[in-house]
Write a structure and sequence with these properties.
The chain is of the alpha+beta class. The chain is built from two helices and eight strands; from the N terminus they run αββββαββββ. A hairpin with a 3-residue loop joins β3 and β4. The radius of gyration is 14 Å and the shape is globular.
C-alpha cells in the first residue's frame, strides 16, 4: 500500500474542500498510516482560563485522522467521522501550538480507525488522547 497524497496535495485538498478551516491546520508530515498535523493556537481556540478549548482539540484530532486516511486512499471528501472518544489529560501550555501525532490502526474498505496523541509545543507529555472511527464511502 503506497501513499496516495503527500503534504502538498493534502493542503490543496483542504483549501479546495474546506476553505473555511484550511488555514487552521498545518500538515507537517504525512507517511504510511500516520500523519503529524499542527494547529497554530489563536485567541479563537481558547476557553476561559486561557487554555485551549475541548472543541478545538477535537477538531485537530478529527482533521488529523481524516487526512491520514486521505493520505492512503486519495481525495474522498465524503469520508465521515462515525465515532470519537477523547481524553483530556492535562492543560496545554498557554500560547503554544498543538501538535497531533496520528496513526491509523485499521484501514479497511468501509471503516478506518485512528489513534491520536495531542501535544502542546514544548511539553513532553501529551495533553489529550483520542480514538476515532471513520466511514469511507463506497466506490461508485
Amino acid at each position: 500500500m503506497g501513499l496516495e497524497m503527500n503534504e502538498a496535495a493534502l493542503a490543496r485538498f483542504l483549501e479546495a474542500e474546506f476553505p473555511q478551516t484550511a488555514g487552521d491546520f498545518v500538515i507537517e508530515e504525512a507517511g504510511e498510516m500516520r500523519i503529524r498535523v499542527r494547529m497554530p493556537v489563536a485567541h479563537r481556540h481558547l476557553r476561559p482560563g486561557g487554555t485551549v478549548s475541548g472543541p478545538s482539540m477535537f477538531a485537530l484530532a478529527d482533521v488529523a485522522v481524516y487526512l491520514a486516511i486521505l493520505t492512503m486512499i486519495g481525495p474522498k471528501a465524503l469520508a465521515v467521522t462515525t465515532n470519537c472518544s477523547i481524553d483530556f489529560m492535562r492543560k496545554p501550555a498557554a500560547g503554544a501550538d498543538l501538535i497531533c501525532e496520528c496513526r491509523l490502526l485499521k484501514l479497511g474498505r468501509v471503516l478506518a480507525v485512528g489513534e491520536c496523541q495531542l501535544f502542546s509545543e514544548g511539553m513532553e507529555a501529551p495533553v489529550a488522547r483520542a480514538s476515532l472511527t471513520y466511514s469511507i464511502p463506497p466506490e461508485r
